[in-house]
Amino acid sequence: MSLLRPLHPVRRGQREDAQLNLIPLIDVLSVMVAFLLVYSTDVEVVQNAKGVEIPQSSAQTQPKQSVVVMITKEHLFVQGELVATIAEVRDSHSSQIEPLRAVLSRPMLPGVQVAREAELASREITVLADKSLPYEVVRKVMATCTAAAYGKLSLAVIEKEKPVEVADVRSL
Fold first, then answer.
1. 118 φ, ψ to 5°?
2. Model pTM above 0.70
């Protein structure tokens, strides 16, 4: 028997249909789904705009679900809703931003009901601000959030990469 001859001769003009076995594909996909389910539980997704450069930090604690105040170079958003422009915030002579306070006084997170004053102090808010913004703008936003009965305020940052320690070759 020659190695070049096919086991089943195919006549000219007649083509054999190719078959695709889906069982290995389903096995691989099920392993990928299980992997993604296990390793995606610790991730907190915070909305981000292309125009916001977040500062870096070495903090280890992960944020909880909270109301997000995003400050871009030109606008102020709460949960994706436009509240004011940065020019309006800078031009106001008050220490608080009234449009922001009005928006924060509404219930923001779905399914979360605030009933008692003790629970008011434990409400959380996350400020996502561009790192090039002047401090006075961020300070006004933080003061307004505190005045709107948000007891815990967090600043969104990017975790710094830890340097890799290199072993000394001479000590080995």
1. -65, -35
2. no
Angle at 110 between CA 104 and CA 113, to 5 degrees: 75
Instruction: In whole angstroms, give the CA distance from residue 121 to residue 149.
Output: 6
58 contacts 160 by C-beta, under 8 angstroms: yes
**Domains in the chain: boundaries:** 56-159
CB 130 within 8 A of CB 157: no
The length of the chain in residues reads 172
Three-state DSSP state, 69: strand
Contact (CB, 8 A) for 96 and 140: yes
Q: What is the pLDDT of residues 71-126, one digit of tens each?
A: 888 888 888 888 899 998 888 888 888 888 888 887 765 555 544 555 656 788 88
Give CA angle at 79 (97, 117), nearest 5°.
70
Q: What is the Cα Rg of the chain in Å?
A: 28
Helix (H, G, I), strand (E, B) or coil at 36: helix
